[in-house]
Design a protein that fits this description.
Distance between the termini: 48 Å
Structural class: alpha/beta
Helix content: 40-55%
Shape: globular
Order of helices and strands: HHEHEHEHEHHEHHHHEHHHEEHHH
Oligomer: single chain
Number of strands: 8
Length: 356
């Protein structure tokens, strides 16, 4: 009952708190929108909202071609918009991410709105082919990789339209809850520590999704701090709220009588928003708040408005950790793509300090 009470107070808001379906007021007309992680759930529903705004191009990106084609059909059926495109990407594979970015550089043109929604949660340690723990790679490292690689296209669109482009990173309200272990805080290679097989015990993996969503907030705030002030690009973190979606599908694969599985099912049935309701937060982050653009830069959106991030993020310790995570992330990404360093040099005003 205590668990349900906490969820109820944190997440269970009536329709007026969610806000009405966003119209966008034509803010996507004639523009290119890319939604990564768009074949199901809030990503698919957000794509439908964007489709109703009649963008010049709507690119949905996902891992499965079959599921992606089904999403294209659903978008057209529900909205009448037939301009959606399917591009394939697997964030659990760095080669797939860099190939996607290369393709976008050649074929994508300018990019006005990027929504990085793809995420996973794994209850046990599963490494990717790149050697990183899968949740950490998909939710933070690869998300950061693609976001940085697409900065030239985002900035070009912002310059031509005289309106800052938007980079939306889907985080979560769970970042308020996480307290990193002292061993992780003390590590000079925080990501390496979190990803190690030795650290990823079942106990530690219970907090992995929460940690990854804190890293999303760090990334948005660090990028904003380092972008040149005149750069026409606003990076925004957003919480979609507690939504019923396929994100937690791996938890339903637990044994049939798992207590955690039963509790999760009850919580979702009683407390969760629909994916469509959650998607409104993504769309607001992408097209809303234009009369408050400076505050949107590096902001955190929840319930259709800017709200303050966790106290830890704002603390001196949080600032130091944000810098540590940024520097380690850039070190990792430099080893993945030789395009990261030139992008940082051209678009970021504050250099990074290598952790190597």
């Amino acid at each position: 009952m205590v668990v349900l009470w906490i969820y109820c107070n944190l997440f269970h808001h009536h329709e007026s708190m969610v806000g009405g379906a966003p119209s966008g007021d034509g803010q996507s007309t004639g523009k290119t929108v890319l939604v990564v992680g768009a074949n199901v759930g809030i990503g698919l529903e957000a794509s439908k909202h964007f489709a109703r705004m009649q963008p010049a191009r709507l690119i949905i990106a996902c891992r499965s071609e079959a599921k992606g084609k089904a999403a294209l059909a659903e978008i057209e059926w529900d909205t009448g918009y037939n301009g959606s495109e399917l591009w394939i990407i697997d964030l659990a594979n760095f080669t797939s991410v860099t190939a996607f970015a290369d393709k976008f550089e050649k074929e994508g043109g300018d990019l006005h709105i990027l929504v990085m929604n793809a995420a996973i949660t794994q209850p046990v340690y599963q490494p990717t082919t790149d050697g990183w723990e899968s949740t950490l790679q998909v939710n933070h490292i690869a998300t950061s990789l693609l976001s940085l690689l697409l900065i030239p296209q985002l900035v070009a669109a912002g310059i031509k339209s005289s309106t800052p482009s938007r980079m939306v990173i889907v985080s979560s309200g769970v970042h308020y809850w996480i307290t990193l272990a002292k061993e992780v805080k003390a590590s000079s290679k925080l990501l390496e520590t979190l990803s190690s097989k030795e650290w990823c015990t079942p106990k530690h993996m219970r907090s992995r999704y929460l940690e990854s969503k804190l890293l999303n907030v760090f990334f948005v705030r660090a990028l904003t701090d380092k972008l040149q002030s005149i750069t026409p690009l606003s990076a925004v973190a957003v919480s979609p709220g507690f939504c019923y979606s396929q994100l937690r599908r791996s938890w339903y694969e637990k044994p049939a009588f798992s207590f955690a599985k039963i509790v999760l099912a009850i919580e979702e049935r009683l407390l969760a928003w629909t994916p469509e309701q959650g998607s409104r937060q993504l769309v607001f982050s992408a097209v809303g708040g234009r009369d408050n653009e400076e505050n949107m830069k590096g902001g955190y959106v929840s319930h259709g408005r800017l709200v303050e991030v966790a106290d830890f993020v704002l603390s001196d310790e949080g600032h130091k950790m944000q810098d540590t995570v940024w520097n380690e992330t850039i070190d990792i990404l430099n080893s993945v793509s030789d395009k990261i360093a030139p992008i940082i040099q051209e678009y970021l005003a504050v250099p990074y300090s290598s952790t190597n």
